[in-house]
Amino acid sequence: MSAFADLARFYDVVYADKDYAAEANYVARLLDTHGHNPRSVLELGAGTGRLAVELARGGLRVLGIDASSDMVELANGRQRQLGVEGISFLAADATRFRAGQRFDAVIACFHVLNYMASPQALTAAFATAAAHLEPGGLFLFDSWHGPAVRAQGPEARVRDLMVEGAPVVRIAEPHHDPGQQTVDVRYRFFVQPSSAETWQLIEETHHLRYLFREDIATACRDAGFELVCGEAWLSGAPLDERTWSACYLAKRIRGDDWQ
């Protein structure tokens, strides 16, 4: 079962305050800063499609994939509702997907690569990116920054939400295994439908692996990328132990046929 199999309908409510327009501008600016003005983008882990919509509004053609068919259904519904052209979404595994075409850039945002919870899965995701880029093409992605996770440690969080008029309590409880660089986050959503007196429990556990620069450098090397830069997501500040979310840019330098 993929992550968000049961929680997809809560996703946009949980992240309602997320500024996708600002994130799309940041992605476009970072690509442009490094001499790349893409017209087509493959997004790995597109979720409910909100970032793809903003990128398309900026003139990009976007193909978004996500392992959760429920998330893809929501993304396609958003595209139809808004009528934004130049976007399509597919349910697919980022470690195995092959579109049979090249793109100007590949992106994987909002910690998608942390769901590649083994070195082998991470390498496979990088191979997917390489398969869809010509030499010189850029792969932009973010990640939980290992030094910050080790220094700060993940914390349990509780949020009160309203979903379709029903009160919802979300509890996120992390279990950190420093030896494996993993965090298992147990999500529990307590929902009280208006027609029921009792609360309904929906839960999933998400298995994530945070990354150090060495992990990323190895995946880049194995898939034929050169690591261009790393910085704090959105702010562009240097990475340190206070930076939980890191953004990296890699350039494809090897012309192997990864198809």
UniProtKB/TrEMBL annotation:
One of its GO terms (molecular function) is methyltransferase activity. InterPro entries: Methyltransf_25 (IPR041698), SAM-dependent_MTases_sf (IPR029063). Residues 41-137 form the Methyltransferase domain. GO terms for biological process: methylation. Keywords: Methyltransferase, S-adenosyl-L-methionine, Transferase. It comes from the Bacteria. The keyword Transmembrane does not apply. It holds the Pfam family Methyltransf_25. This is Type 11 methyltransferase. It comes from Rhodanobacter spathiphylli B39.
